[in-house]
Amino acid sequence: MSEENQNNNKSEEKEDITEKEDITEKEEEKARFTFKCTQCQHCCQERGPIPITFWDLEMWARNGVVANFMPYLDIYNKPDGGLDLVLKPLPPSPKEGEEAPKKDPFESIPIEDLLTVKCPLYNEENKKCLVYDNRPLSCRVYPLEFDGKNFTIVDVDCPGLGEEGMSKEELKEMRDTAKTMYYELTRMRIALPVLSQMISQKVMMDLMRQNMEAMSKMNDDDRSKLDEIFKKNKDTPEP
Ligand code: SF4
Ligand code: SF4
Predict the structure, then answer these.
(1) What is the DSSP code string of 124-189?
(2) 53: three-class secondary structure by DSSP
(3) Atom 2 of ligand 2 has which residue's CA nearest to it?
(4) Rounded to whole angstroms, how far apart are CA atoms 45 and 224?
(5) Ligand 2 atom 4 nearest Cα
(6) Phi, psi dihedral angles at 208 (to 5 degrees)
(7) Most buried among 16, 40, 91, 210, using CB within 10 Å?
(8) Alpha-carbon gap, residue 52 to 136, rounded angstroms
(9) How high is the pLDDT of residue 23?
(10) 145 forms bridges with which residues in the sheet?
């Protein structure tokens, strides 16, 4: 092959490589996660149960605000059998003619029926998060999630996705927060069943102790009345 031909081939190869690099860069650019929250607050209006981690509990304790969250904390029995500590959404407001909800914000509405209602800490009138500085980790990382291996998007309709202007540092921070969320949620999911069982046992033991104390203080009259009630219940045939 002549020297001229060799040079031509080399320059064609170089052009080919530059073109491929351009395409790869464009693909990477397209696949790159870019996000800038547009403050549309959609995620606060239809959020469902928000998982709470030890990180959140520690932050609230440090900032002296745990009591503000207590009325909304609940344990969610997940369909897979696991437990999550969650901020449980408020039940929807009663429609016209319907009875007003009782004082307990959770009533007996199953959590599954509250998956698309607003976060209890979102103020609809002012369109504001009432606890923004103390918002849970889950809100800080939304809509990104880390599952131990990969990053995923939990809400592809989030309008902030694809918004330009995210710096490398912000991207790193969001990824690190997603990893912290995964780690903290795992810690909570390991500890919660044990804690929940211990607390239930303690409550049960306390109730039994209170009952025994109350019975030991009964006079003979009350005791015989109670015996009669038990006897009556025993003799009543089951329906
Ligand atoms: S995270 Fe997304 S859905 Fe939530 S307020 Fe920001 S842009 Fe809206
Ligand atoms: S805690 Fe605040 S940021 Fe999080 S979902 Fe509720 S209102 Fe939105």
Answers:
(1) TTTTEETTGGG--HHHHHTTEEE-SS-EEES-TT-TTBT-S---HHHHHHHHHHHHHHHHHHHHHH
(2) coil
(3) 129
(4) 58
(5) 139
(6) -65, -40
(7) 91
(8) 7
(9) 47
(10) 152
